[in-house]
Amino acid sequence: MTALQVVFLLTAAGIIGSALMVVSTPNLVHAALWLVVSLFGVAVLFVLLNAAFLAVAQVVIYIGAIAILFIFAVMLTRRLLVDPGGQTNPHWWVAALVALVLFAGLAWMLGNWPGFPATAPLAPAPGAETVQELGAALVSPNAYVLPFELASVLLLAALIGAIMVAREE
Amino acid sequence: MPFWRDPVSFIAQWLEGLLLGWGLAEGAATALLTLLGVVVVATIALLFGIILVWTERKVVARFQDRIGPNRVGPYGLFQPVADIIKLIIKEDITPLGADRVVYNIAPLLATVSVLLIWAVIPFAPTLFGTDVQVGVLYVVGVGGLGTLAIIMAGWSSNNKFALLGAFRTVAQLVSYEVPLVLVLLVPVLLARSMGLNAIVQQQEVWFVVYAPVGALIFLIASIAEIGRTPFDLLEAESEIVAGFHVEYTGMKFGLFYAAELIHALTISALTATLFLGGWRGPGAEAVPVLGAVYLLIKTGLVYFVVMWIRYTFPRIRIDHMLELCWKFLVPLSLALLVVTAVVDRAVLDAGLSTWARVGSHLLANVVLFVIAAQLVRVYARRARPIPVAEPGPIARAPEPTPAE
Question: DSSP letters of A61-125?
């Protein structure tokens, strides 16, 4: 086992562990903080794949913006940050069953997919200039210009919506 | 390469040879050296923090017509050491009802988030932690961790003043991140790269000459990001005691204090790197150690300006703080970004020389600044009209009363 694999396994274990903590801790702010740990682990995975831009974007967007807004919203809306009720109700086993069936179905589908056992294409070498290629692909008509523009329109609509909601009239 | 020209690379090569000579695998040797580099850079940054305590106190004293620390050692040089000993031996108090784990992680995260930025600052042509391609974005991302640390401190202290400080932090830091990110794109656009070392290498003419407005917005937004006066609403002593760190004692408070000081130095170094040519200077290419000296001098100059602003301006009101960001800095930085992009493309298509490129960028900046200043003038006059004396009733002819 190479050092890279060890790091990958440790990171993956950390992501899954903190993701479990997100859904199992009764304290909402703790859940948000565990979410930050989990998202940070995903950024580490991107680094392991030499996808520096995606790793940093993950940190900027998910930790720097979304997680902080989560915590902010939780702190503003709830006086008691701990949920006093139990975390599960008597039907928890149904949910567990559905989750298991879903996992099994996904695993079966992936196992039947011919691309699954194939070797993944090599990650770009460290230090390769991938940012320029990504930038060009985002505005190139042959690549991702349409999804890029659609996402922009969606975000603009959200912005206008937020302003309309916040207006005093 | 002789030792005196580039001591750090020399020592690194010598150490690598030594480790390999001891029969260590190459990967292990690299990992060990990287670890050593991280420790050295972080330690140097923290040592700078100690020197900054003294500098800061001396400079503020001069601004306030005092002498400043002058008892411990020559010129009071050992005052920070005395301060640190005091901080270490103080009682460590955890408030009742505090969230212990989060409470203890917060000061560490605050310090780490600042030290992480030092990984990408190029100190000299051959001397940088790592040359990340997306260095500029990395700086923004790491800054987000600092915001998180302050929220964690404010929330976990179980104190309403600390929580108020955390709320203000989110309002301020998240708002000022917008103009900061927008204006960071200006040097990226001019250098055609996001890597900090590449940006320095492209600055044959300093980017502050290309985009003085950009440098100004960057400095203002950065000062807001580190929460210094006039933007110290997150720890406004006269309103919310000390804000997010009101419950911290001893060295935990010391870590927040050190983080703030080193953060101020870091944004000065970033300003020097992005707009003042970083390590560039006569002879820096041939003798890399000179580059570090140049960067240190430029950083010191910017740091002095930051201190000057801190000790000159009063604290800004919270609604003015938000208005300055959203109504002035964000539109201005957006306009600057568009203008820079259009001008640069036009210059490129016209095939003009470097000096023509600099001149057209400078002209565009000046025009933009004049327009912005005029708009602010009109806005200020409307918001706060200058009272002009009305002509008295005696000097005026009585108005004819309308027939009833």
Answer: IIIIIIIHHHHHHHHHH-SS-B--S-S--TTHHHHHHHHHHHHHHHHHHHHHSTTSSSPPPPPPP
